[in-house]
Amino acid sequence: MVLKGKKYILLFLSPAVLLITIFLYYPLGKTIQYSFTNYSNWVPKFDYIGLENYKRIFTDSVISKSLINSLILLAGCLIVEVGFALVLAVLVDSIKKGFRFFRMVYFFPVVISGAAIGLMFYLVFQYEYGMLNSVLATFGVEKIVWITEKSAMFLVLIPVLWQYVGFYFVIFLTAIASVPTEIYESAMLDGISGFKKTIYITIPMIKNVIVTSLGLVIAGSLKVFDIVFVMTNGGPLDASQLLSTYQYQQAFVYYNQGYGSAISVLIIVLGLILYLVTTKLSQSKDELY
After folding, report:
1. Do you find a cis peptide bond into 236, omega within 30 degrees of 0?
2. What is the longest distance spanned by two Cα atoms in the chain?
3. Most-buried pick from 104, 191, 197, 245 (CB within 10 A)?
4. Nearest-angstrom CA–CA distance, 244 and 223
5. 3-state DSSP call for residue 230?
6. Do the domain assignments include residue 277?
7. End-to-end CA distance of the chain, in Å?
8. Whole-prediction pTM value?
9. What's the DSSP call for residue 288?
């Protein structure tokens, strides 16, 4: 009977395993393979060149700039998408009426296409016909060049952070709602309320959810592409270039698929390292030993 049950389990799992293999693991394997080649211009014939693409990564100035920008984006996502979303969830959870309205308002940007959000903010910051300069012109103020080499990276942060705060807000709000009310009632009898209740009860009780969210933020921030691509395309002068946008340019604009694959592997390895470090740091001493 046990073997018969396992056969049914394998039967139902096999379509999912097949799809994951075809659309995830096989492309991943080919990407790693191409990263060791001079594959370019979509020509199926290529030669293996060892670690040359990876050596180029360490000497490419755009890679270093893209890496710094990606880490800036990651820091912003961790602070705002996790930190600010957690604060919002705690505040909204204390509201007796109208919390569904806030949940809908904060979650709404998540359902909008990233390309649409990028286009919207691109139009907002445009010099000639952008919304901000139109408002300034109404009050007789001279137009401003908003997207510059110094400001581009921080301006693209705005729509990226705005889009996904609501996603983690809903996750944290749901996690907080699952905390047993008896714990809060006992704490109130002991005189714990307000800020102390959040620090000593709420956050420890939803710690696993927070750690999971940190992992999602790390993976998501390294995959940010559409908003930046539509708003600035990594410019001006690579000022807002991310590893993802630079990888796209190398593979699909300059047709250097081998080097683009090496950058993809770099993104994957960086994401895994950051996730493992975050998970390790989040563990308590009891869990470590």
Report:
1. yes
2. 82
3. 245
4. 6
5. helix
6. yes
7. 39
8. 0.85
9. H
Least confident of 97-101, 165-169, 271-275: 97-101
What integer pLDDT is reported at residue 284 of this predicted model? Answer: 52
Q: Give the model confidence (pLDDT) of 28-59 as tens digits.
A: 999 999 999 999 998 888 899 999 999 999 99
Radius of gyration, CA atoms only, the chain: 23
Measured CA distances, 53 to 87, 186, 218, 261 (Å):
43, 60, 25, 9
Q: Give residues with Cβ within 8 angstroms of 25, minimum separation 6.
A: none
Phi-psi region of 179 (alpha: psi -120 to 50; beta: other; left: phi over 0): beta
Q: What is the pLDDT of residues 189-204, one digit of tens each?
A: 777 777 778 888 888 8
Residue 19 located in a structural domain: no
- Three-state DSSP class for 180? coil
pLDDT for the residue numbered 3: 53
Number of domains in the chain: 1
| CA nearest to 209, candidates 162, 168, 163 | 168
Q: Which domain holds residue 89?
A: 35-288
Give me the residue label for tokens 């890496």.
67
Q: Smallest Cα–Cα separation from 88: which of 170, 158, 157?
A: 170
Residue 60 lies in a domain: yes
> Domain holding 53: CATH number?
1.10.3720.10
Residue 133 burial (C-beta neighbours within 10 Å; 0-12, 13-18, 19+): buried
The DSSP line for 102-126 is HHHHHHGGGGS-HHHHHHHHHHHH-
pLDDT score for 286: 45
Rounded CA-CA distance 149/239 in Å is 5
Asked whether residue 27 is assigned to any structural domain, the reply reads: no
- The residues, any chain, with a CB within 8 Å of residue 63's CB and separated by 6 or more, are 57, 243, 246, 263, 266
Provide CB contacts within 8 A for 237, sequence distance 6+: 149
Residue matched to tokens 């709404």: 108
